[in-house]
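Retro notes (design track)

What went well: tokenization of the new backbones is finally stable.
What didn't: we kept losing track of which sequence belonged to which structure.
Fix going forward: every design gets posted as structure first, then sequence, in one message. First example under the new rule, 283 residues:
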């Protein structure tokens, strides 16, 4: 009995399998390449689209930059006209605004003080207000930004004064040789009126026994202002005149109301004296 030709069969089968595997690999490779080509095509299209968008954006940017440059040129021209009208330049306007900023900083510092301390520094507040008024004399003050700031500073000054105490605290004065109540009262930084000396006398009765006799180194209180609802009499006033003030009654015929409310210190309604503090009754 002869043996079958198995080795040949095995070879044929092996070759078929090998060929089939090669064909499959070739088919897979072909499919992978086609997919790659398709994907690469999509990438190229996307890149082309993005490049077009970028070009459009760059064109838009260029147009915007040109428009901006044109606007800046127009603005510069307008500012040249403005500078010509106000007689200044950019540096001058900056210096002007810096000066206003300095005033604002000083006001803000003052706002941190107590009412009594504010009153003691009222001369500084007056000086600041004067500086603001001086700034308004400049043509630069007509610029909207400058005008707004000046208006705000004026309002801030008003707010500082509103913080003053209702009854201002008394100042102090140290007597020097040659002083008398009359001469002290006449000093500009006291009352600037010699006839107001009784105010100093009344405020310092604890150390002034005789108004004609005072001594060096004595320290006197100098009253400032009067309580709300009172009027401080000055030279040249009489009851009817006081009653006629708008802030009093605005009617001279109502002088009798003041007289009746102050009969303890007014013996003759035709005689009132400087430095008297008269109660103004409510209507």
């Amino acid at each position: 009995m002869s043996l079958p030709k198995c080795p040949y069969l095995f070879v044929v089968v092996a070759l078929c399998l090998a060929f089939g595997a090669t064909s499959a690999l070739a088919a897979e490779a072909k499919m992978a390449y086609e997919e790659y080509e398709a994907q690469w095509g999509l990438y190229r299209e996307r890149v082309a689209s993005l490049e077009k968008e970028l070009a459009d954006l760059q064109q838009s940017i260029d147009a915007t930059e040109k428009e901006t440059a044109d606007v800046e040129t127009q603005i510069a021209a307008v500012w040249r006209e403005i500078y010509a009208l106000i007689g200044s330049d950019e540096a001058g306007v900056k210096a002007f605004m810096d000066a206003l900023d300095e005033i604002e900083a000083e006001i803000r510092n003052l706002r941190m003080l107590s009412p009594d301390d504010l009153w003691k520094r009222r001369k500084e507040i007056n000086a600041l207000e004067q500086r603001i008024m001086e700034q308004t004399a400049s043509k630069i003050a007509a610029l909207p930004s400058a005008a707004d700031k000046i208006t705000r500073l004026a309002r801030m000054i008003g707010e500082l004064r509103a913080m003053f105490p209702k009854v201002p605290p008394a100042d102090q004065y140290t007597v020097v040789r040659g002083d008398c109540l009359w001469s002290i009262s006449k000093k500009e930084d006291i009352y600037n009126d010699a006839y107001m000396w009784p105010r100093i006398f009344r405020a310092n009765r604890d150390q002034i026994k005789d108004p004609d006799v005072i001594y060096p180194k004595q320290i006197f209180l100098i009253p400032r202002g009067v309580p709300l609802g009172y009027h401080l009499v000055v030279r040249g006033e009489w009851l009817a005149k006081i009653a006629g003030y708008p802030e009093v009654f605005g009617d001279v015929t109502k002088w009798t109301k003041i007289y009746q409310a102050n009969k303890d210190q007014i013996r003759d309604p035709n005689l009132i004296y400087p430095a008297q503090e008269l109660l103004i009754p409510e209507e």
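Added context from the reviewer: Residues 1-5 have pLDDT under 50 and may be disordered.
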